[in-house]
Write a structure and sequence with these properties.
5 helices, alpha+beta, 2 domains, Alpha-Beta Plaits, 4 strands
């Protein structure tokens, strides 16, 4: 699929809906200086073209039992494509794994995992290792606090320099 050409209206809209996707088209129209129907058409096109992949809610951890967050560095024994694909599918399917990155360096994957407690985390990691024999080692960092959390991708306006 070709990369979609974004104009400044699209870019403004993407920044606004990333900050708060619950805004009405009327509110977005006020901020972008387009009509609500134009906003609706643009949002539909951005979704259809795969620019907006999914809209989700950011939940306050304290309000749902203060789950713990773990940052995990995962190493595999062999980087054979079929073994990596099996591991990727397993990681994608596991709801407690919020993010998974295939990386360079010491680790092969870096994961962000959430669990209500360390016992639940330990059980998850035991299952990961037993169901994925290609995983050779993992190290865990326990988050002591949240400084920043989000998935926003800064979308510079055409007149701005890219970061």
């Amino acid at each position: 699929m070709r990369q979609m050409k974004l104009d400044n209206f699209d870019r403004q809209l993407l920044n606004l809906v990333q900050a708060d996707s619950s805004q009405t088209t009327e509110r977005l129209a006020e901020q972008v200086a387009l009509s609500p129907s134009a906003i609706q058409r643009r949002l539909r096109r951005l979704r259809e073209q795969g620019v907006i992949v999914r809209e989700t809610a950011l939940v306050e951890p304290k309000e749902v039992g203060r789950p713990s967050f773990f940052v995990v560095s995962l190493q595999v024994e062999r980087e054979r494509p079929e073994l990596l694909m099996q591991l990727r599918k397993w990681l994608e399917a596991e709801p407690r794994i919020q993010q998974a990155f295939y990386v360079t360096g010491e680790a092969d994957f870096v994961l962000v995992v959430t669990a209500p407690d360390t016992e639940t985390y330990d059980a998850l990691m035991s299952r990961l290792v037993s169901e994925n024999p290609n995983v050779s080692r993992f190290t865990t960092n326990v988050a002591l606090g949240i400084v920043k959390r989000g998935l926003t991708i800064p979308v510079p306006l055409a007149s701005e320099n890219s970061d």
